[in-house]
Specification:
Order of helices and strands: HHHHHHHHHEEEHHEHHHHHHHH
Shape: globular
Largest sheet: 2 strands, antiparallel
Number of strands: 4
Radius of gyration: 20 Å
Length: 416
């Protein structure tokens, strides 16, 4: 057994009972409904373990009961990582392993998420009609249409709602004028946090998979691979790819492009940056690989896979990676490398598998005690999915066992 798998197992054991989670976490207002920081995300870990025979179903029931122990948020205050869509994702993963389970709850959540998708699309259409720039929360993975679309694509791939979401994302790729200047349609006056930021006086174009245009790219590609296509979808994918290619620097991309980048002097090489899921090469290159597979483009596929393989063994990039998390740490990188290797061309598959193995080794230093490491991780990073222990344990499972996720839990990352 790989030491990283022992670490994953020990984290899961320490997170078996919701009652043992420190009150500093469980007393937070969003705890019950947050996929990123609360009960639904920890449930994902136990769902995947139960589905693969590594753990019992009892913790799943405990954590899902915690998640539904209060009224579930829907509408404008919900998104993929909070409220009804977050619970829908967790229950969909459970239903992958137990097809007859949670049917009534999922039927209800399907209606809620579909209604929210319609509302969001209507708002996006009205914004386009006014000629305004979008908010990040209109289209990104965490809070926007790309994230909501991931639920619809799993639950109702033949439905009208996913097609409407895709149409909105296609429209997002059409150039827009702002203050007399032409900008890509996803240019936003928000800062990267989703709030106005004095550091971005003219706005920015975000590249990341969590908050940027790589999220819509991944959803458009995943839908196309499933045979779900709307007018202009292939062109939209190519438009995003061309933008990313223009700003690519070796095997890395800037986290965002500002007005200064567009009007300033020639670009300088990027400073070392972590190749994470949320921002960086891992997320962007995986989205590009998915696009290449959807379009049947072997050159693009090779470029994406080569960039990912190079970034994951770049000492400077890895030196900027300072934790184990699924979001931007070693476990998340190992998971993406493993996912990408399974669909890579023969020339790149071996490179990516080797990178995944090295990343797994980095999650568990030599002679480290799994119990001590798991307890320290829980104490420092907390139990959460996106940046904490639960996500670390979950991201380690597939690469450490050489398997494919049984529940497609990583659909919420838009990596599958």
């Amino acid at each position: 057994m790989h030491p990283a798998l022992r670490l994953s197992d020990r984290i899961a054991e320490l997170l078996t009972d919701p009652a043992t989670v420190p009150s500093a976490w469980s007393s937070r207002p969003q705890w019950r409904q947050s996929l990123a920081h609360g009960a639904p995300g920890i449930a994902l870990l136990h769902i995947e373990r139960a589905a693969t025979g590594r753990g019992p179903w009892e913790p799943v029931l405990s954590w899902l009961s915690m998640a539904v122990g209060a009224p579930v948020t829907s509408g404008a205050d919900s998104y993929l990582y909070y409220g009804a869509p977050a619970l829908a994702h967790a229950l969909t993963c459970a239903a992958e392993a137990r097809p007859d389970s949670y049917r009534r709850a999922l039927d209800h959540l399907d209606e809620v998420v579909a209604a929210d998708a319609v509302r969001r699309c209507e708002q996006a259409d009205a914004r386009v009609e006014r000629g305004d720039l979008p908010l990040l929360a209109e289209f990104d993975t965490i809070r926007g249409l790309a994230g909501i679309g991931s639920i619809l694509l799993r639950r109702a791939p033949g439905g009208e709602r996913i097609r409407r979401v895709l149409a909105c994302l296609v429209c997002l790729t059409e150039d827009i004028k702002h203050d007399g200047e032409v900008r890509p349609g996803w240019w936003t006056l928000d800062g990267p946090s989703g709030e106005r930021d004095v550091r971005f006086p003219g706005g920015h174009a975000n590249s990341g998979l969590a908050h940027g245009i790589a999220g819509p790219l991944a959803l458009l590609a995943l839908a196309l691979r499933r045979g779900v296509e709307v007018d202009g979808q292939r062109k939209a994918i190519r438009t995003i790819l061309a933008w990313l290619e223009h700003w690519r620097d070796g095997h890395a991309w800037p986290y965002w492009i500002t007005s200064a980048h567009l009007t300033g002097p020639d670009r300088r090489p990027l400073a070392p940056q972590r190749p994470s899921w949320c921002y960086g090469t891992a997320g962007i290159a995986r989205a590009q690989q998915l696009a290449a597979l959807a379009l049947g483009d072997p050159r693009l596929r090779n470029d994406a896979e080569s960039a990912l393989a190079a970034a994951l063994v770049d000492p400077q990039a890895l030196a900027a990676t300072t934790d184990l998390s699924a979001c931007h740490g070693y476990a998340g990188l190992a998971h993406i490398a493993h996912r990408a290797a399974a669909e890579a061309s023969p020339r790149n598959s071996g490179r990516l598998r080797s990178a995944a193995a090295l990343l797994l080794d980095a999650t568990h230093p030599p002679h480290a005690d799994p119990d001590e490491q798991a307890r320290r991780l829980l104490a420092t990073a907390g139990p959460a999915f996106l940046e904490g222990a639960a996500g670390t344990a979950l991201a380690l499972l597939a690469p450490a066992t050489g398997s494919t996720p049984a529940t497609r839990w990583d659909a919420c990352l838009l990596t599958s």
